[in-house]
Structure formats: C-alpha cells, structure tokens
Write a structure and sequence with these properties.
Blueprint: H1 7-31, H2 35-41, H3 46-52, H4 72-79, H5 94-107, E1 115-120, H6 123-131, E2 146-150, H7 155-167, E3 171-175, H8 181-187, E4 192-198, H9 210-219, E5 224-227, H10 232-235, E6 245-249, E7 263-268, H11 278-281, H12 284-290, H13 292-296, H14 302-312, H15 315-334, E8 339-343, H16 353-359, E9 373-378, H17 382-390, E10 396-397, E11 407-409, H18 420-427, E12 433-437, H19 443-454
Parallel strand pairs: 2-3, 2-4, 4-5, 5-6, 10-11
Antiparallel strand pairs: 1-7, 6-7, 8-9, 9-12, 11-12
Helix pairs in contact: 1-4, 2-5, 5-14, 15-19
Amino acid sequence: MDASYSAGVRRYVEQASEYLARRQAYREKVRKLKFDTIAVHGMYSVEEAFQNGQGGIIEPLCPSTSQAYRDSDEMEAGLAYLIPTWCYSRIHNPTVYYLEETLSLLESYGCDTDATALCTSAGMSAIKQAVEPLLEIKDGRVDRLNFVSAAQVYGGTFQLFNLRMRERGAKVRWVTRPWEMAEWESLVDEDTRFLYLEMPSNPQQACADVAAVAALAHRFHIPLVVDGTIATPALMRPMAWGADVVVHSLTKSVGSGGFTIGGAVVARKNIVCKHLPDEVTSDYALWLKLWPFRDSGPCMSPHSAFFLLNDLRTLRLKIAHYSSNTMTVARFLSGHPKVERVDYLGLPAHPLHGLASRYMSLVDSGEPAFGHLMSFVIRGTAGEARKFFDKLERIWRATDLGRVKSVATIPAISTHQQQGEEGRRLAGVPPTMVRLCVGGEHPDDVIADLDQALASI
C-alpha cells in the first residue's frame, strides 16, 4: 500500500485484511460441503447474520443505492479498492454479493481451482462483459483479429458475435459441427482470442468435447468460454473440464420461478489468456467488476438477486425433476408419426448421446440427466408447425425457457428470427422446429396437450 495513505486509512486496511482472512477460511470450509448445502447456505453464515443484520436466516435484501462510510479515511480506502466495499450499487451490492458467492461455489464445485462470479442485468450483458476485454485491439491491428464459436448458439449470441463484434473489428469463425474437433482445429490460429460454445445448445442440442476444446484453446494460450445456461452446475461444471469462463442467463434454468432476469460471468482463478496481463487473468471476474463493468454499468438489481438467490437453493432438485419429465416427453414425441425428429441428448438414439453422457449427470448422484430443453421437427410444412403450435392449450407459447411451467416456441420466428435464413441454416434451425422446455407439471398432462395439438395437423 502506498505510504502516502493516512494512518486512518491504514487502520481500515488492517481490519479489512483480518476480515478477508476469516472469510477465506470460512470459504474453504464451505467448499467442502455438498452441492445442495452450498446452494441453500452459500457464504451467508450465522456469524454474518448477527454481524450485518438482526439474525435473519435468509440473506437480506439491500435495496439501498449506496453505502455510507464512518469517516473520510474509510471512504478513501473503499474507493481506492483497498478494503471490501459496495460504495454504489452500479458496482456492487450486498445482496448481489451473496448470489455471486453462491454461484461461484457451485460452478467450481469439485474443481481443483476456486472461482469468482460477476452478476449482470441479463444473460446477454454477461456474455458481452466476458468476451469484450478478450478482443482488445493492440497496435491498431484489426485485420486478423478473430474468435471461434460454435454456430449452434442462442439467437442473441449469434447477433452479438456476427454483428456487434464485427463492429469492433473482430471476425467470428463459425464451427458448424462443434462435436468434431477437426473443425475447431482448422479455424484457430495465432490471432484467435478465445473459443466459445454452448453446452448443450439452444435449441438444437448440439454439444462438444469440452475437455478437448479447452485443451486446444490452451495450446494457443487463449481461454475457452462456455455458456452453461441450460445444463446449470447441477448437471455440468465446465471448469472441471478445463473451461476458463462460464456464462449464464440466470433468467432461465436458475431463475425457474420466472420473476426476474439476470446473467452471470463465472471465471476460474488464473484463466489462460496470453493477451491480458497477469493482474487481469489472476481473478478475471473481479477485474471485470472493478473496471469494465463499473464503467459500462450493466448491473443486477438487488431485487433480482434476491429472487434468483432463493430460486437457486433448490436447483438440483428442480433440474432432476425437469430432466425426468423431459425424458418422458421426448420418448413420446420420438414415437409419434407426425414428428420427424426429436433432438434431446437423453435419448440413446441421439447421435450425440454418448458425448453428452460423458459430461452431463446429476451432481452428487452420478445419475444420467440431460435437462429441460429439447426441440423437435414437425413432419410437414412451416404452416403445419404453426398450426400445431397455435393449438397448444396447457403449454405456454413464449420465447422464455427453463420455467416451472412448460413453454414452447418456434425458433425460426422468434429467438432466431433476426439472424436470417442463412444464419438459421448455418445453425441448424429449420422453420418446422419447435423448442420445448418441460417444466414441473406431471408429464402425462404435457403429453396430452402435445398429442391433441399434433392431432390437428
């Protein structure tokens, strides 16, 4: 610490150092707990409950915009990032902190390395925050700046990569068959900044050999970024297989109650990135929070964090239930004469079932589980797909997913409409594809609704 700081500032720093040491010791204890226990408690301890509140057993909602300081020394220490502080909710907030801590513990569950999380206003802001610093322009050279991504990504991600990143001078190179390593290898070169994939993808259910893609990225000393929205850490933790950064739309599977939107960037300590200095890569998510995120302001509302934190507590139980229901529905649809193809990784007949089985299983049980997302292709025309869709009665027509209520959409006219016909062809999204996310209802009732709607075509 700079010797120019006053004795009062140094006193606050000493106190903060003692507090941080206690918190780190407690964190090490929490990391040894089981997944469900971490999801329920996170870093909110009994001691903290009485220190920072009135003993409430649930993490407090702190809607205040800003933090007050005891004196000028504490303010100076806080705003210089010398002590833990949440000075202003655009940068940090206590309720958001509890959510970030829980997410980082769950994503790094069973990993050799710890992680840090940054929560954002939405999933798209999480992706943008995670990748933009990796595309820093150096020496004015933009002619060869590129990154490599699976083509099977959410429509918003496709637009971000194909249009917004191009505006920054970065060219995306699309991998059309991400399960084939040869295609990844053919597109990576010394000017590639990062690799990116969804596992599994929305809505096509594409997947990749995460460990092999991570090894390829690290061979070029660049990071692998994985969108884990659909699987959640209840089914897969990409960092255990070498991924450097995991992004989430918390709006979806984590926030299954459907009350709010949010996103998250979870980064392992010491990510691999030859283009960034050590002080950035050592704790990438924290650096994002203190600098780029602070300056651009896509912050999460404390109210959103409160809702998401409470949805997160039962994550494994919900994902197990939704996965079981989805498997039952997928089996029904795969045998229906009016369905041409069912894309669900849990079906043994799916060409990527073996690959997905290596990475996806219910945490702390080892039981195969493949999540709530599936898609299927209607045998017929786009008009017949729309007729079927319009006849649904119990299943909600919406672009949402991961809900406790079953939701369906036609990606070609909704989530993937803006990327155009060529983009949809590249991503494997035909106009007759229906995306279905099965929720918590009894699967027999979901099947009955699908059956009556299919009978109309």
